[in-house]
């Protein structure tokens, strides 16, 4: 294991160990721990996976398998603001694609990418269940509904340079 | 107990929350404090009222005044006029809740609620989901008490069997039979699980029940635990539903505190506890065997059945798995008896079903109707029809597993079997309405794109087959369709249906097959004429200026970002199709509606 990330994040790894100790005796604890680890580190870099593998005594391949299976786990760090454009059916039939295209144009990144300054990550997400407000986007925990492409610039500007 | 002269119910469901009900709640709090009304007026944050289209929704009792789209700045008027002076602020009321003589209609007179029958949603929008006392005041945990103190596990199972309740998750398997199989299975340890991994895009009834009435699910799971002989329950809930997770966490803590979960419930020998497990964004985990693998902390890949979960489920032990809405039906069935439940619905589908209305419909939101209600009643009476009086084209039910129902079947009474017969399925109850501006080939492509992305990759028919179907559909929507494509899609679809490992793959071709069945001419227009009749598929679009309507004002020339439009002033303009990027900017600018997509 590379020692540098361990030393640079000593406190975080101590917290991770505390989380592992709390959950390891539960039945099937791996996803519970991965959720918490991602909250802690912002993503699941391979060093974190290795640490969990050693602590739980399960193969790294199993952990990598789980971390890459689920779309909410990410191995790469994300931007300060994650913009999720709901691509559920209700939003799609009400023009979510045009909203996504506009966001892509406005920020200059494709869906799934993070801007170079790590301010924005743009994602096409699954149904957020706010179908009554379609089309909907979420920026971190803020929800914006009933959107048309011309709303996008104003919304994005609110988060720029915050 | 304190007495309040008025109750202000504020919807705290996801829809209203997203449109700002949190701020409205805070403003109410401070306005009430300003006028010293805190001891006279009770503020309650409830679950979903169902009519998400007009959120945030606020209802004031005893009058039953239904305020809709309440903004922060409206609150002080409601407080000073209505709550202080007793004068209802009529102009803020939901338009359909006022009679012509300005008298207020009761909720069940409002068109949206008139034909509804709220069983699974009975407490949503009525009680504060974060207070166990309010659930108990509405007969909560009474069914659990009755079962534990007066009934044997066999009697409980027989009663559920007799009610005819079928699983609300999609497949419609008789719930009582599932309970019986699990009860009869041999095992030293058994589990009761709840499938709250509501992944169908456009379906949000399970979320509303979890957010609006979480105790009903806990109570039903505990009853199920007693009936099948389990002492541990798991609720597998989507991580995309933070409010539901929060309310469930509170509810579980309160139930433990009250002795309704944990050891020796109601002073009996029966012990049962429930734990939450969060998904992490994988649609396939809604499939029962994949869900159980995910609870175990592994990749959510399905496995062949048998053995069924009732025999070998979570951690290899017999497991009962039902969906949220199924559980929500259990307490009223036990309290009112199976005959009562049998009296609602159709011959083979008893009770009610919750639908999430979305898409091109005026009253988007959640509705619960008796089985056998027709699509027309749901869309035109409850749903208030299609915006701008546009023409109905199709209703999509069952999400990525279902199909599109055309206008000719609007009068089909909806139940499990009738929907299957017309090539769709109930699914979890998402109902998306589409009008003439939605392209059916594009919708089929949209769903296949979803399935390809969500296929776990374990079995080849799903992994490779759906990908090939998607490639054909993409070709068609890009104007590169060939003769024979339709037949290829049908053949592939049929073989995937019969050979895929799990429900996801077996139903994945449905959106394609049903749109071919009912809208074949639209596929043919794409393939033969390279034309998209709905004007959706960008590659096939042409934006044309109708010469006879064009006044030559030049606005479109200015609007065009790529200088594709030319023409003299006061004479008809033309678009150079080789330059046009089909952005539609000219279309929005034209004051004479002379520019059309086609």
Characteristic key phrases:
heterodimer, A: 162 residues, Glutaredoxin, 48% helix, B: 598 residues, alpha/beta, Rossmann fold, Ubiquitin-like (UB roll), 5 domains, 17 strands, globular
Oligomer: heterodimer
Would you identify the regions of chain B where 5 or more consecutive residues have pLDDT less than 50? Answer: none
How does the major sheet of chain B shape up? 5 strands, mixed
What is the architecture of the largest domain in chain A at the second tier of CATH? Answer: 3-Layer(aba) Sandwich
Overall pLDDT metric of chain B: 94
The fold-level CATH name of the largest domain in chain B is Rossmann fold
Task: Describe this protein's structure.
The complex is a heterodimer of chains A (162) and B (598). Chain A has 162 residues and is of the alpha+beta class. Chain A has two domains: 3-69; 81-159, Glutaredoxin (3-Layer(aba) Sandwich), CATH 3.40.30.10. Chain A has eight helices and four strands; from the N terminus they run αααααβααβββα. Chain A has helices spanning 3-8, 10-23, 30-41, 46-56, 60-69, 89-93, 96-107, 152-159, and strands at 81-86, 120-125, 137-139, 142-144. In chain A, strands 2-1-3-4 form a four-stranded mixed sheet, with helices on one face. In chain A, helix 4 packs across helix 5 (60-69). The mean pLDDT of chain A is 91. Chain B has helices at residues 14-18, 21-34, 75-85, 111-114, 132-137, 142-150, 153-163, 175-184, 205-212, 214-228, 242-257, 288-295, 324-336, 338-342, 375-382, 416-421, 440-454, 460-477, 485-499, 503-507, 510-528, 555-559, 585-589; strands at 6-11, 41-46, 58-61, 65-67, 191-196, 232-237, 273-278, 319-323, 352-359, 365-370, 392-397, 403-406, 430-435, 543-545, 565-566, 574-575, 595-597. With 598 residues, chain B is an alpha/beta fold. In chain B, strand 6, helix 11 (242-257) and strand 7 (273-278) form a beta-alpha-beta unit. Chain B is globular. Chain B folds into five domains: 6-113, 3-Layer(aba) Sandwich (Glutaredoxin), CATH 3.40.30.10; 132-341, 3-Layer(aba) Sandwich (Rossmann fold), CATH 3.40.50.11540; 352-435, Ubiquitin-like (UB roll) (Roll); 440-528, de novo design (two linked rop proteins); 542-597, Alpha-Beta Plaits, CATH 3.30.70.20. Chain B is built from 23 helices and 17 strands. The N and C termini of chain B lie far apart (67 Å).
